[in-house]
Design a protein that fits this description.
499 residues; alpha/beta; six-stranded parallel β-sheet; 21 strands; 33% helix; globular; Methylthiotransferase_N; iron; S-adenosyl-L-methionine; MiaB_methiolase; tRNA-2-methylthio-N(6)-dimethylallyladenosine(37) synthase activity
């Protein structure tokens, strides 16, 4: 009898993407195999939805997808559907009522129970709903099927202690809980031994690391410790919070060779009035002060951000303050969001909700300004020689253009002419930038150098192993990188919460 197949569909932030790697690992540990590439919708034996709750229409999207699977499940006895993640944590009591064909509902704190709950639902022939109110075990202890052989997420904390009025994450992920530094470093060392050369430290509020263990400099110490791991070429982190971004972190970034000069620093608004209403614990002057210090220590740093347009009560003057900060900060790129109500958040019931057409007009002005700045900043890269780590699946037109794609140290996307010699994802190619667009760089000349790496070896080994058995399907999410070169439009903070 052949093994049962599974499919994981993921929505939301990097935390969910990494949780889905763990869900895949758990299922494979329990004997399931990933559904072959090209499997028709509903043909997997187990379909898992790892959900997000930060968008107003998140539940509509979930129930629409569940609705399409209902008739398929009727035709296929034994097929199972599981719903986990933030929406499951929030709507625990309503999912099975609205979609009684769902077999398992589990929350953000007990993803390790999925195989057991699936088996229990099969034996008892009734839905299993199990939502833990607090973390049962730090999820990094669970088996993980990583999506990349050369770049990896490493979770350093879960949960968040902030109370931003637009964000429901703390209610669903709980209070911040930090991992032991030794456990984090042990995981990184194990990944490097397997061939990984780039890691992204991950937390809802990553630079608050240490608050749970009473050490305000724990995050900068962790960055410096990563610098001592032989074979680890690139270290990134996301997403920090301006409140906790201290001078020792800037120094650690500047002084640790393998910590990349790339920073994702969520602004949300440039208006002090709006920041106060959002319960963000910094103001415009503090934010710009951080940017100034980062640029003084690392003039080549690429800084990105999250911005919410149209928060309740935002006036034209408030919006102009956001535009002012964008002009001053000169972000390499910005993930801009039109405010949408998150059910269960204080902001959802605030007065002075901004009309949709006003929000849309402001949003378009902000995007136009940021596009202009991104292009100008990218043009400064023309003529520079960069080491690009070759990525898998980042260049949609690569085959047609005979190019490859990868990430520069500052995380800019680079498309470059395919070298004569074989190059694998994870290898490093040195190129000269000849053209800049707002969202990518182009290197049209021949490569200056190609460095084959242990990460490329790891990719080759994994690819060879995959061809010996049915190929897997990628997680059901928009492409967001390698998977980890950090931050991505689908996942800057939690749908723009930045905590």
């Amino acid at each position: 009898m052949s093994a049962k197949t599974y499919e994981v569909r993921t929505y939301g932030c990097q935390m969910n993407v990494h949780d889905s790697e763990r869900l895949s690992g758990l299922l494979e540990d329990a004997g399931y195999v990933r559904a072959p590439e090209g499997t028709a919708e509903g043909d997997a034996d187990v379909v898992v939805f790892n959900t997000c709750a930060v968008r107003e229409n998140a539940d509509n999207k979930l129930y629409g997808n569940l609705g399409r699977l209902a008739p398929m499940k009727t035709k296929r006895p034994g097929m199972q559907i599981a719903v986990g993640g933030c929406l499951a944590q929030k709507d625990r009591d309503t999912i099975v009522k609205r979609a009684p064909w769902v077999d398992v509902v589990f929350g953000t704190h007990n993803i390790g129970k999925l195989p057991v709950l699936l088996e229990r639902a099969r034996i008892q022939e009734e839905a299993q709903v199990e939502i833990a109110e607090s973390l049962e075990a730090f999820p990094s202890t669970l088996p993980t099927r990583r999506e990349s052989a050369y770049a990896a997420w490493v979770s350093i904390s879960v949960g968040c202690n902030n109370t931003c009025t637009f964000c429901i994450v703390p209610a669903l992920r709980g209070k911040e809980k930090d991992r032991r530094t030794g456990d984090i470093l042990a995981e990184i060392e194990a990944l490097v031994a397997e061939g990984v050369s780039e890691i992204t430290l991950l937390g809802q509020n990553v630079n608050a690391y240490g608050s749970d263990i009473g050490d305000r400099e724990a995050f900068s110490k962790l960055l410096r410790a990563c610098g001592r791991i032989e074979g680890l070429e690139r270290v990134r982190f996301t997403s920090p919070h301006p409140r906790d971004f201290t001078d020792d972190v800037i120094a650690a970034m500047a002084e640790t060779p393998n910590v990349m000069h790339q920073l994702h620093m969520p602004l949300q608004s440039g208006s002090d009035t709006v920041l106060k209403a959002m319960r963000r614990s910094y103001r415009q002057e503090r934010f710009l002060g951080i940017i100034e210090k980062v640029r003084a220590a690392m003039p080549d740093a690429a800084i990105s951000t999250d911005i919410i347009v149209g928060f309740p009560g935002e006036t034209e003057e408030d919006f102009e303050q956001t535009m002012h900060v964008v002009r001053e900060a000169r972000f390499a790129n910005a993930f801009t969001f039109q405010y949408s109500k998150r059910p269960g958040t204080p902001a959802a019931t605030m007065d002075d909700q901004i009309p949709k057409e006003v929000v849309q007009a402001r949003y378009e002005r902000l995007v136009a300004l940021q596009e202009e700045i991104s292009w100008d900043e990218n043009k400064k890269q023309v003529g520079r020689t960069l080491e690009v780590m070759v990525a898998e699946g980042e260049g949609r037109k690569d085959d047609a253009t005979h190019r490859l794609s990868g990430r520069a140290p500052d995380n800019r996307l680079v498309h470059f002419t395919k070298p004569d010699e074989p190059v694998r994802p994870g290898d490093v190619v040195t190129v000269e930038i000849t053209y800049a667009a707002p969202h990518h760089l182009l290197a049209e000349g021949p490569a200056k150098a190609v460095r084959r790496t242990r990460a490329g070896d790891a990719w080759e080994k994994r690819t060879a192993a995959a061809t010996a058995k049915p190929a897997g399907v990628m997680l059901g999410i928009p492409a967001i990188g390698a998977p980890a070169p950090s931050p991505a439009p689908a996942a800057a903070g939690c749908g723009g919460c930045g905590d």
